[in-house]
Specification:
The protein is mostly beta strands. It is about 5% helix and about 50% strand. It has 4 helices and 33 strands. Strands 1, 2, 3, 4, 7, 10 and 12 form a 7-stranded antiparallel beta sheet that branches. Strands 13, 15, 18, 20, 21 and 22 form a 6-stranded mixed beta sheet that branches. Strands 24, 25, 26, 28, 31 and 33 form a 6-stranded antiparallel beta sheet that branches. The protein starts with a strand and ends with a helix.
Length: about 500
C-alpha cells in the first residue's frame, strides 16, 4: 500500500485538500468545501442560496456532497430542500411556475429533492468526465406559505445546507496532435483511455479515426470500443458518442467544435475482464481560410509534426513498425478550406455596472448572403456576464429583400459558430444546441432573450436559404444588449 501525502490549503471561504496516492500516480484527488448557509422558504429570487465551485482541468469524476442539517427542536416538520445544478452559469429556476417573458427559451435545470427529517441528511451526485470550469448550485426551501408568526410564541426552525466537491483528476493526459497518430491500450481495471486535443480558432471540422484494434494476444481485427468527444455538462449534456464495435476503421466527424479549448477524448473498452485492447488513433482538422490566414496556419502547424506523413507515437517510445494504412499528406491532415464565412467586427461598450451594449463597426446594417454565412462574435467573458440576460433583436430591411420566397436563418451559439447551412437549419454544433431565429418577407423581425448565458464567446451566425435556385443578399438592422446583474455575478465576494 503506497504512502499517502496530504496537502491542505485553507481559503477565506472553504477548504481545499489535495490527496496523492504514490502507488497510483495517474490520478490525484482534491476536495473543496463551501460554508454552510441557512435556507429560506421561496418567495422571490432573493430566497435562493447560490454556491460556486470550479472543477479543475482533466477531472474524470466529480462528486458533489450535500449536507443538509436541521437546526431546531423536535417540533419542526420534515421538509424538502430543492437543489439545482448547472455548469457554466447559474441555473435558471422557476419554483412558482411564473411565465417567462416572450422570446425567452428556458432549459430546466438538473435538480434534486432532499428530504430532511432527521438532524442531518447526506446526498451525493456523481458526474463522470465533467466539464472543467464553473459549476453552480442553487438551493431553497418550498414556497413560503405567507403565514405570519409572532416571535417568541413558536419555535423557529432553521435548515442549513453545506456543499462539498470531491474530484478525481488525471495528472497526465496524452495530447493528440493533428497529423500525428498514437498507439494506446486499455485493460482491466482501467478500461478507459483519456486523451485531449486543442481546437484552434476558425476550426470547421474535426476528424477522429481509430484503427488497428486488437484484443489480447490474438490480434483480432475487430473489437469493442466506444468513443466520446467532449465533457459532461448539466443540464444538457454536450458530448458526442461513437460506437466503434465491429469496425476495423472507425471515423468520427465533429462539426463546429468549440474554439480555443481543449477537447476531451475518451476511448472505452467493453471487452471482458483481464483482456488488453490496443488501438491506433489519429486526428485531422479542417480550418477556415480568412483574408489573413498566416496566424491560423501558424496555430495549426504548431500542433503538427515536421514529417510530411502521419507517424505513430506510442505511449513509451516512437515506433515505425506500424503505419497508418490511410496515410495522407500533412496538408490533408491540417486542411485549410476555402472561405467559410463573412466576419463583421463587433464593438462592446460597457455602459455601467449593470449593462453592456454591442454595436456593429460601420453599422448598424449587416449584409447577409446565401453563399456564405455571416458571423458576429460577442465577448461575454468578463466574468460578470453569466449573471445577466442577453437580448438579441433582429430587424429586416424590407427595401433590400428582393427574393420574397427566401428565408433568413440565424443561430446564437456558445463556443463556436455554425459554418454549414445544414447545421444552421437545426441550429446545432457538434456538441451543443443553439438558439434559433428566423425571418422572411412576412415576418420581418425576431427576438431572443437568453438568461444567465455561459461565460465565454458567443456567435451569431446568419445565412439566407433560397428557394428556386435564386441568390439573394439582404441588409439586416439589429441591436443586441447584454445585461449583467451584480447581485449574481459578485456571488463569491
Amino acid at each position: 500500500m503506497g504512502v499517502i501525502g496530504i496537502l491542505a490549503i485553507i481559503f477565506l471561504k472553504g477548504l481545499t485538500v489535495v490527496t496523492v496516492d504514490t502507488a497510483d500516480v495517474t490520478t490525484v484527488s482534491e476536495y473543496f468545501s463551501q460554508n454552510g448557509l441557512g435556507l429560506s422558504f421561496y418567495s422571490w429570487y432573493g430566497s435562493v442560496r447560490l454556491f460556486y465551485f470550479r472543477v479543475p482541468e482533466d477531472t474524470v469524476l466529480a462528486s458533489f456532497g450535500l449536507y443538509a442539517v436541521k437546526k431546531s427542536g423536535s417540533s419542526c416538520r420534515t421538509i424538502n430542500i430543492t437543489v439545482h445544478f448547472q455548469s457554466g452559469a447559474p441555473p435558471v429556476i422557476n419554483p412558482l411556475g411564473t411565465k417567462f417573458a416572450s422570446y425567452t427559451p428556458v432549459v430546466p435545470s438538473h435538480n434534486l429533492t432532499i428530504p430532511v427529517s432527521t438532524t442531518m441528511n447526506n446526498t451525493f451526485l456523481n458526474i463522470t468526465n465533467p466539464s472543467a470550469g464553473d459549476w453552480f448550485i442553487a438551493a431553497h426551501l418550498p414556497e413560503d406559505d405567507g403565514k405570519i408568526e409572532v416571535e417568541g410564541l413558536s419555535s423557529k426552525c432553521s435548515y442549513v445546507l453545506q456543499p462539498l466537491l470531491m474530484v478525481s483528476r488525471r495528472i497526465v493526459v496524452p495530447v493528440l496532435e493533428a497529423g500525428t497518430a498514437q498507439t494506446h491500450s486499455v485493460s482491466s481495471p482501467n478500461t478507459v483511455a483519456y486523451l485531449k486535443i486543442f481546437i484552434p480558432e476558425y476550426t470547421q471540422e474535426l476528424n477522429l479515426t481509430l484503427w488497428n484494434c486488437s484484443v489480447g494476444s490474438s490480434g483480432a481485427s475487430m473489437c469493442s470500443l466506444q468513443v466520446s468527444l467532449g465533457s459532461t455538462t448539466v443540464p444538457v449534456n454536450s458530448q458526442a458518442f461513437r460506437n466503434c464495435t465491429g469496425k476495423t476503421v472507425c471515423t468520427t466527424v465533429l462539426k463546429s467544435p468549440p474554439w480555443e479549448k481543449w477537447l476531451r477524448i475518451t476511448v472505452a473498452s467493453t471487452a471482458s475482464d483481464n483482456v488488453t485492447v490496443g488501438f491506433n488513433i489519429g486526428a485531422s482538422l479542417s480550418a477556415c481560410k480568412l483574408e489573413s490566414t498566416s496566424s491560423v496556419l501558424g496555430i495549426l502547424k504548431s500542433f503538427a509534426p515536421n514529417s510530411s506523413y502521419f507517424s505513430i507515437a506510442t505511449e513509451n517510445q516512437g515506433s515505425s513498425s506500424n503505419t497508418w494504412n490511410i496515410s495522407r499528406s500533412l496538408s490533408d491532415a491540417l486542411q485549410i478550406v476555402g472561405n467559410c464565412f463573412r466576419h463583421q467586427t463587433v464593438l462592446r461598450e460597457d455602459l455601467d455596472v449593470l449593462s453592456a451594449k454591442f454595436s456593429i463597426v460601420n453599422g448598424p446594417n449587416v449584409t447577409v448572403a446565401a453563399n456564405l454565412p455571416t458571423v458576429l462574435l460577442f465577448n461575454l467573458n468578463s466574468g460578470d456576464d453569466s449573471g445577466g440576460t442577453v437580448i438579441v433583436d433582429l430587424l429586416l430591411n424590407k427595401s433590400s429583400w428582393t427574393n420574397h420566397s427566401a428565408l433568413l436563418l440565424a443561430c446564437f451559439t456558445y463556443g463556436s459558430p455554425i459554418l454549414s447551412l445544414e447545421s444552421l437549419k437545426d441550429c446545432s454544433t457538434g456538441l451543443s444546441q443553439g438558439y434559433s431565429l428566423k425571418m422572411n418577407s412576412t415576418k420581418t423581425e425576431d427576438h431572443l432573450r437568453v438568461p444567465f448565458p455561459i461565460s465565454g464567446y458567443w456567435y451569431l451566425t446568419m445565412q439566407i436559404l433560397c428557394f428556386g435556385n435564386r441568390r439573394s443578399n439582404m441588409h439586416l438592422i439589429w441591436t443586441i444588449l447584454a445585461i449583467s446583474r451584480k447581485y449574481i455575478t459578485r456571488r463569491w465576494n
